[in-house]
Amino acid sequence: MATPVSNPAGAPCNIGPRIAIRGNISGEEDLVIEGRVEGSIALTGHLTIAAGAVVEADLEVDSVDVHGQLEGDVIAATTITLHEGCRVAGNLRAPRVVITDGAHFKGGVEMEVQLPGGIQRQQRR
Amino acid sequence: MATKTRNNLPSPESSAEVATHIGPGTRVVGRLSGQEDVRVHGTIEGSVRLAQTLYIEPEGVALAEIFARDVVVSGTVVGNIHAESAVVLAATARVVGDIRSPRVSVEPGAAFRGSISMEPVDADALEAEATASRGSSARAADPRGAISERSTHGDARRPAPARQQQAVRLPPRRAQAFTAAAPRPTTTPDPRAWAPRPTTPPASLTPARPAPARPAPARQASTREERSDGEDTITIRHPAIHSSDDRPRRRNEALPTAAATTVIRESPTEEDRKKPARPRTLPRGKHKVERVD
Amino acid sequence: MASTVIGSSIVIDGEVSGEEQLVVHGTIKGRISVRDSLVVENGGVVEATVESTTITVNGTVNGDISASERAELRPNCTVIGDIRAPRILIADGASFKGSVDMGG
Fold it and tell me: What ipTM is given for this predicted complex?
């Protein structure tokens, strides 16, 4: 089901707007999703969820740019960026998370937070 | 008013037209409320309710529950943030807590841990904010507002309201006397019913009778039990057992009907006396009344 | 000089402490302890025990005042409470009810 994608031409792999995939995607290069994906995505590259895309999957990626709709938890090694107009529901975990004004997000965010000394982190959970 | 960016978000570098600011060496512990912008360079602990914008400057620290119209964080916040309009976490922000605001912007470099919910702020919180900033001390509306927000939030961790106390009305403990009594017949179809249990959910009222018993008389039995509530000893009522028209019933005689059983009203003390005698669960389909003294 | 200014619509219910000057235009209830100086402006209301080096009151103070250097009650202020300070100035027009202890 999951086959590593390799594209010698260098262009990022593109899942077109009229394509729906249900299953697990894994790979070692960048991926652009414009269609629909359900399942899970594991990538050591950069994932872009384009503006019309609908992704219902848990992501484990190096970094991700979300412009479309995403439902699922995201774990990124570097940065998660939610752009204006995106709709995201799920938990984000990454060293850097950027939420642009205009993004719609609901869920948890976990980044490395270094509180200045002497402040107790109140665990509300 | 503070200058805004083109997106109408308050920017961290707005001009200091604001009158209230808490200096870096100042610490406020308690409740702060007001109708104007506040810039915090120092420390504030407790709760903040503002009708305008709260700025937490880079050296500012807020260990507080924040309710404001806008919140711009460039410093440290440990606590939940509820904003009516927008929350901005600037590059130097460090926030631990939940954010609830229609618009949230997390700038690159900000550090955040918590959840973000863009549902509209609850009306309770709004009202609480308004009354608090009118100078009255924070009232119970605040936690109520926060809690109701949370529950609509779908936060599963929040415990359900303490409704359990009224949902489960513990029936009187019924079966205990039986264990003190003579050994039970082994033909008990439903031994569970007689086993002593500290708490018995109302559902177990129904098993408290021989399994084949008809539902109608059994229900009567249960209601009569509840009526004799309030004492500690067990009163087992079953029309087949306790009917004080003590004629022994023949095998094929039907159980007293529901109507009949209501007539049989024994006082609790009578029951108590009778109980230690041998109560029996009668074999399937056969009901016999035994005279017990 | 860093300072803390509490605006006129602000109400603080709790303790305020600090190293720098505190200027109060709003309302503070509870306790105030600032190292530098405290100024209660006209319209400011302080219902608290106050401790500072220099305390200047133009508004209302309902509580004990403890200044390590000087306490000044300006005209049109209202102070109800005890004052303890080595130097005191109560201007004409100030309204004051309480005791004064100059530590002599």
Answer: 0.90
Q: Contact at 8 Å (CB) between A68 and A89?
A: no
How far is A19 from chain B, CA to nearest CA, in Å? 30
Q: Tell me: the pLDDT tens digits for C7-35?
A: 999 999 999 999 999 999 999 999 999 99
What would the mean pLDDT of A56-74 be, rounded to a whole number?
95
C-beta atoms of C10 and B32 within 8 A: yes
Please give the residue range of the domain that contains residue C38. Answer: 3-101
Tokens for B51, please give them.
């009708």
Residues of B in contact with C27 (CB under 8 A): 135
Q: Greatest CA span in chain A, whole angstroms? A: 54
CA distance B18 to B26: 17
Residue recorded with tokens 């399942």: A39
Q: Distance between CA B60 and CA B41 in Å, rounded?
A: 4
CA distance B191 to chain A (A): 44
- The partner residues of B26 in beta bridges, in order of sequence, read C18
Physical contact, C and B (3 or more Cβ pairs within 8 A): yes
Q: Phi, psi at residue B223, to the nearest 5°? A: -70, -35
Q: Is the CB of residue C24 less than 8 Å from the CB of residue C8?
A: no
Closest CA to C11 of C51, C47, C36, C62: C47
pLDDT < 50 stretches in chain B: 1-6, 13-18, 123-124, 137-166, 177-191, 193-231, 243, 258-268, 270-272
Cβ contact A30:A45 at 8 Å: yes
Neighbours of B183 (CB within 10 A): 8
Angle, alpha carbons B69-B72-B74 (nearest 5°): 160
Determine the pLDDT at residue A48: 94
Does A118 reach chain B within 8 Å, measured CB to CB? no
Q: Residue type at B116?
A: I
Q: A113 and B103 in contact by Cβ < 8 A?
A: no
**Backbone phi, psi, residue B149, to 5°:** -60, -45
Q: Provide the strand spans (E) within B98-158.
A: 99-100, 103-106, 111-117
- The kind and range of the H/E element at C17 are strand C11-18
Phi, psi of C54 (to 5 degrees): -120, 130
Q: Residue B8: closest CA among chain A residues belongs to which residue?
A: A101
Residue C28 contacts B where some CB pair is shorter than 8 Å: no
Selection from B40, B41, B50, B42 nearest residue B125 by Cα: B50
User: CA of C5 to nearest chain B CA: how many angstroms apart?
Assistant: 5
How many residues are given for chain A? 125
pLDDT-above-90 percentage for chain A: 75
Amino acid at B213: A
Q: Where are the domains of chain B?
A: 20-152, 176-274
* Residue A125 in contact with partner chain B when CB distance is under 8 A: yes
Tell me if chain B has a CB within 8 Å of the CB of C43: no
**Domains identified in chain C, total number:** 1
Pick from B230-234, B288-292, C77-81, C95-99: least confident:
B230-234
Chains touching A (at least 3 CB pairs under 8 A) are: B
